[in-house]
Amino acid sequence: MKMKQTKGKFERYEKRVCVLIFLSTIPNSFSGFQFLATHYTPPFDCSGQNVSMYNNLTKDTTNIPSKFATDACLRYNSSSNHGKNRTDQTYTCKSFKFKEDVQTVSTEFQLVCDRAWIKPMLTSLYMVGKMAGGLSAGYMSDRFGRRIAFLVFTYGQFVASILTSFSSSVTMYAIFMVISGLFAVGNFEVIVVLGTEMVSIERRSFAYFCAGFGFSIGNMLLALLTYLFVSWRWFLVFGGLVGVLYIPYFWLIDESPIWLLATGQKDKAEKVLRKIATYNGHKNANNSATLALVEQKISEDLQSETMWSTLLHLRKSWILIGRLAVVLFSWNIVSMTYYAIALNNDNLSGDRYLNIFYGSLTEMGSTFVFYFGITHLGRRNSYMTFMFITSAGVAAAPFLAKWQGAASVTASMLARLTIAVAFNTIYTHNGELFPTNIRTSILALSSGSSRIGGMIAPVIIYAGESGDTTVPSICMAVVIFLSALFYLLMPETKKTKLPQTIEEARNLNKCVPRGISEEKTEDQPLNANTVPLVACQNSPPLLNV
Length: 545
Prior knowledge:
The protein is mostly helical. It folds into 2 domains: 11-49 and 87-253, Up-down Bundle (Growth Hormone, Chain: A); 305-508, MFS general substrate transporter like domains (Growth Hormone, Chain: A). 62% of the residues lie in helices and 4% in strands. It has helices at residues 12-24, 28-32, 35-38, 66-69, 105-108, 118-144, 146-164, 170-182, 186-198, 201-228, 232-241, 249-252, 257-262, 266-279, 287-295, 300-303, 307-315, 318-342, 352-376, 379-403, 405-430, 436-449, 451-465, 470-486, 502-506; strands spanning 44-45, 74-81, 84-92, 97-98. The strands form 2 sheets. The chain has a two-stranded antiparallel sheet. It has a two-stranded antiparallel ribbon with strand order 2-3. Strand 2 (74-81) and strand 3 (84-92) form a beta hairpin. The longest helix is centred in the middle third of the chain and has 28 residues, at 201-228. It starts with 11 loop residues before the first helix and ends in a 39-residue tail after the last helix. Keywords: Membrane, Transmembrane, Transmembrane helix. Its main location: membrane. Residues 20-494 form the Major facilitator superfamily (MFS) profile domain. One of its GO terms (cellular component) is membrane.
């Protein structure tokens, strides 16, 4: 039976997928930016005793050397015998009095002065966990399915948050930081790929917009929660209890038919497709025909291969190796820059809570700029444009700080907006550059390895806290600029179908084979891979020849 044409229609099931993506990414901000609430260090002094004890009877404080009077890490003791034989001594403080009524990891475990190095180390350990979790999520997603990987990492992040709140020592907290990082990013990676595979080409950009928008909404809620919860423990408990709202995802999330077909599970794929057709109101759709239309886009030899054999084939393609090298470098630079800017929020001038809120507004604005960029400029040009702007903002910030604090904050917020756009763009682009069988694994490898850049970010922040930020900022600006230049070598994937095989990935941006229909029919509820390439585009000399 001939079905009527529905090309371009936003199906009900696609809308449902986009809503689920949006809601699923909201809590990711609680984990990713928890340090703004848990690691905040308020002003302090040496247990209120950083004063001179000169002539103890009179408590004369007029002769304190200025370098001691302003150093909260030292205690200055001056004594004499009736003004004679004066002795000056300094002592390293062992306990501190904090000047704000907040309870954070820094205040509870006294992570200041000679223990201040522990704070960036804890953040780096979190990034180590993120690296391991990202790689694990990719393997689990490609080996066992998108759905089970998403559920494991979604529920895992909530349990990890509650467990971390019971930390009774720095060592215990450090261990839970690794565990928290392990579950922090996996669900985001998987839902991005799942959304990419379950919506049409026309909706792929919008699906990722939903993921980024949910993350930015979570960022705004983070500002409110940081204000409401003065105790870091209760902040983490609340972040974990939010997981109760996500229990229905166990029944709402379906496996990707694209993945099922790519791994030879034809019967399960047909069951999901039947559900999608029914949900879209296509009750009379021929499910066998629907399955065939999708299945014909899956290579027969791909179905018989494992993820590992596909990766071995990837090794034989210099084009894809070069593409992967550029992707990995870009991910690390983006991650380093993003976290160096975002987690430095507490060190900006002005009200701390307002700065977090302004940062969240910037994050939200970045999702709209991202959507405009990738739909009008394309993936490659968007990344390059916004990385160039980020480079300029990072380089200018330390010089503006010497002139006016507000100008420096403005430059930092602009850089945060543009680096967030670049982060969103590379997430989207990464999922469109490699074949189905290794799509999540490559995304996980890229995201996981980028935590090396994330580990460097706390060190950059710590260097800025303890000295001049000019040199670190200039160095960051240079590598950001280089990352944008290298991205010239990447192919543009705007309005191209997802590659299913190594050969299709190699041939991105080449011409559409003639004789393939560009129409989609009503019995094609899943159409992300049934629309061919729409145009021939110029191929960069290295990666697409």
